[in-house]
Amino acid sequence: MGHNNTTSAIASKTQASTRYVSGDGGSIEPRTSNLKQTLAVQPLNVAEAVVQMLENLGIESAHGVAGGAMATLWGALSNSKVQVLNYRHETGAAFAAAEAYFASDCPTVTFTTAGPGITNALTGLFAARGEGAKVILLSACTSAPQRGRWAIQETSSHTLPTDGIFTSGTLFNYAITIESPAQLPQIFRRLALGLAQPGGFVAHLSIPTAVQNTPVDSVVIPQMTTNCSSMAVSENVITQTIQMLSEGPFAIWLGFGARHASKEILELAERTGAAVMCSPRGKGIFPENHSQFIGVTGLGGHGSVMSHMQEQTPLHTLVLGTRLGEPTSFWNPTMIPPGGFIHVDSDAEVPGVAFPNAPTFPVQCDIKTFVQALLDRLPIDFPSTSTLTLPNPEKDEIKEATVPLVRPEVLMEAIQKVIVEGSDAIVMAESGNSFTWSTHCLRFPEANRYRVSTGVGSMGHVATGVVGAAFARKGKAVAIVGDGSMLMNNEINTAVKYGIPAVWIVLNDARYNMCYQGMQMLGMTGADATMPETDFVMVARGMGAEGVRVENESDLESALVMAMKSSEPFVIDVMIDPNRKAPSKGRNQGLAALGVKSTPTKSTTEQISFPNI
């Protein structure tokens, strides 16, 4: 990288031939800024220079809520090539920015004003970091002369902790407050390198209000060429992997980090006969209708996985792109193969953490690069386990209706038919029972069509993230959400403003039903998880969207078809039976294992889904 090549001023940066190669194998090409026309009249200010740098880094969209403290920065964004979407709440904007990244593989920006603008966005950015998104937060902060003087929405060490919010750490891969134009070259370099690395990258640039207007006269930006290719893997590692896999039957355990290697993983599985399972976030990376797919692990997963691990225990498990955390594994010792794990991840800190007592052969590598290298070296006569009879995910019998409301299982059947099989829409499931019903019941034949957040699991993530996903893919994205999440945070109004064809399917049962059912299954009483019933069709229409309420199962398919045909934002308000037990037993057993005391009832002894113990 040409660190010392500083011959070009920022005013001519738009003509640079820099090419940034992303960790996913794509490239980010610099584009000519709309701001270029202003250069002959006056120099850029800091806000305009930052926006121009973002354009050069391939940023195409910005999602946020503005305010007086960031007026100059907001103006620079709004007059650039970056598409600016103005939201109703910073948390929703941050969730939308993260999901826009996943829908497009293009880095995004979220922006906020000072004070509560920043703190409101933190939950969404926390999720972005945990999910592996590439998102840059642009915020305003109080200028130096006003700090400590009770400025409006003061943002300084007098009012907020600086560690972790304005400094690099567990929340931000990179964070800095811009106090001078002289910082811009190094900031540009750090952003370029961060966005080019494999995996996620979440950054925070906070610019004091006065600094946003500071002219950029003599500062120069280095000419950079960042050739950051995917992580390579040594021949010795591949040789050792092949040796271990050839010692006996093995299984493949997929996570979201393997989503760009679906073709290579399918070839590996078919050449070796290995059983394939996936995390909830990994649904569809390996076709769920394939004979070698044995099910989803973790929350909302399938008992077929446990059947295989107990009855046809593999010697090794090849783990590709999953942290094996609680939502994926419940840290169940049954999932530990006798020969241990071969754990591949781009993050060197991941292998061996979830199961610290299990033998683990760690490999730090991009998943696609690793599997390609494995296929290139895999012997033609590699011993196949195709003679094994593998269990496939169970299709639970739908029990007879007991009340005149929609059974969630029947709703999932309709979603499978109309949306999963009848369209190419992204389907997103909110945390709670929406997550477990969708993960357990839906089957995806291809990758990158299902999105859930398992690590953070924030309510409102999907209810707002669906707007970013639909916007980025310029097509349908469907959110399966609970009524609690829709009341907590939604961006229907934003979708209406920009004509974004997002669809919300609301499981309306007038309660936080995962909490309600969970307390019942743990034998606890007295806690109130109910809420007044809400008419979400009226809410949608009040904001300018379309909507329909479904009270009868016979109306499900027609309502879904109507929503998918609509070019406008659309809400389907489904009155579901609140007493249908969601497939979440593993979560409740996990809580019990952590010390939450329970009084066993009949329901806690029935296997509902992927068990913990």
Automatic annotation (TrEMBL):
GO MF terms held by the record: acetolactate synthase activity; flavin adenine dinucleotide binding; magnesium ion binding; thiamine pyrophosphate binding
Coiled coil: none
Residues annotated as domain Thiamine pyrophosphate enzyme central: 251-374
Swiss-Prot/TrEMBL keywords: Thiamine pyrophosphate
Domain called Thiamine pyrophosphate enzyme TPP-binding: residue spans: 431-574
Ranges of compositional bias, category Polar residues: 1-20, 598-613
Region annotated Disordered, chain positions: 1-29, 582-613
CDD domains assigned: TPP_enzymes, TPP_PYR_POX_like
Ranges for domain Thiamine pyrophosphate enzyme N-terminal TPP-binding: 45-155
Gene3D superfamilies: 3.40.50.970, TPP-binding domain
GO BP of this protein: isoleucine biosynthetic process; L-valine biosynthetic process
Gene Ontology CC entries for this record: acetolactate synthase complex
InterPro entries: DHS-like_NAD/FAD-binding_dom (IPR029035), THDP-binding (IPR029061), Thiamin_PyroP_enz_cen_dom (IPR012000), Thiamin_PyroP_enz_TPP-bd_dom (IPR012001), TPP_enz (IPR045229), TPP_enzyme_TPP-bd (IPR011766)
Family to which the UniProt record says this protein belongs: Belongs to the TPP enzyme family.
NCBIfam families documented for this protein: TPP_ScyA
Record protein name field: Acetolactate synthase
Species of the source: Dulcicalothrix desertica PCC 7102
